[in-house]
């Protein structure tokens, strides 16, 4: 009787240990645009609490970042829409045949000293969400660096990455992917 009770207790304890297991902590989670950080997770194991960047203000580094508030600006998406730069698969290199578009954006900024610029980096749907967010950042920064090399003050340029979140073509083929691998320029003026 005593050995049956001991066996049942050991089996119960083993089941309890197996069923609870170890909870894994997620790594750092990239905030998504238009979603509060509380919905996408807390800080990763190496980040102190409260370090998540609000989604609409994703800063991508790469030197001094413009400190103007987008809410205080009028966004003119049509002004530079024809200058959208497209990238090769898994690349943030501005291709030689796209440099004329960057030149046109630099000229527009030089002709309008009050204007500022928002550069959005975008990707196709292939790759993980975090990888695409990072690649979009690198694309936006590459465009900002190209503009800086042409004499544009980097403090007039803000960058943001949307990764794969805002495709222009919802298709799932190479034609759609080519359109979605892009950097868009949005001209900004004070309200």
Gyration radius (Cα, Å) is 23 Å
Q: Tell me the number of strands.
A: 5
What's the domain count?
2
Largest sheet: 5 strands, mixed
Which quaternary structure do these chains form?
single chain
Structure write-up:
The chain is α+β, with helices and mostly antiparallel strands. It folds into two domains: 1-53, no CATH class; 58-190, 2-Layer Sandwich (60s Ribosomal Protein L30, Chain: A). The protein contains five helices and five strands, in the order ααββαβαβαβ. The protein has helices at residues 2-20, 37-40, 99-111, 129-149, 174-180; strands at 73-76, 85-86, 116-122, 157-163, 182-190. Strands 1, 2, 3, 4 and 5 form a five-stranded mixed β-sheet that branches. Strand 3, helix 4 (129-149) and strand 4 (157-163) form a beta-alpha-beta unit.
Provide the descriptors you would attach to this structure in a database record:
single chain; 191 residues; alpha+beta; 60s Ribosomal Protein L30, Chain: A; 2 domains; 5-stranded mixed beta sheet; 5 helices; 34% helix; 15% strand
Q: What does this entry show, briefly?
A:
By secondary structure, the protein is α+β, with helices and mostly antiparallel strands. It contains 5 helices and 5 strands; from the N terminus they run H-H-E-E-H-E-H-E-H-E.
How would you summarize the topology of this molecule?
Elements: H1 2-20, H2 37-40, E1 73-76, E2 85-86, H3 99-111, E3 116-122, H4 129-149, E4 157-163, H5 174-180, E5 182-190
Parallel strand pairs: 3-4
Antiparallel strand pairs: 1-5, 2-5, 3-5
